[in-house]
Amino acid sequence: MPITLATIGAERLRVTAPARARFAAYARRVLAREGVRRVDVSVVFADDAMLRALNARSRGIDRATDVLVEGNVFYNRG
């Protein structure tokens, strides 16, 4: 179950290796609890400027939000 973590945006946005490992482990536990066996998960940690740009491009909203979900969500239980 691949979980990809990336950081984009300002230099001040730093996600340490231990924090990345904890986040990936948490994601795996949640997926396992939900019965999801085969899935690819990509998570991007971004600063406000990047979230604002993504919102403007994809949703026509010129502001940053706490969470932005893009793409399709498909998963196979079992």
How would you describe what is shown here?
The protein is of the alpha+beta class. It has 2 helices and 4 strands, in the order βαββαβ. It has helices at residues 17-33, 48-59; strands spanning 3-8, 36-38, 41-46, 76-77. The longest helix has 17 residues, at 17-33. The model has no long low-confidence stretch (mean pLDDT 79).
Please tally the β strands and state the result: 4
Shape: flat
Average pLDDT rating: 79
Q: Percentage of helical residues?
A: 25-40%
- Percentage of β-strand residues: 15-25%
- Summed up, the helix count is 2
Summarize the structure.
The chain is of the alpha+beta class and 78 residues long. 37% of the residues lie in helices and 22% in strands.
Features:
78 residues, alpha+beta
Could you outline the blueprint of secondary structure elements for this entry?
Blueprint: E1 3-8, H1 17-33, E2 36-38, E3 41-46, H2 48-59, E4 76-77
Parallel strand pairs: 1-3
Antiparallel strand pairs: 2-4
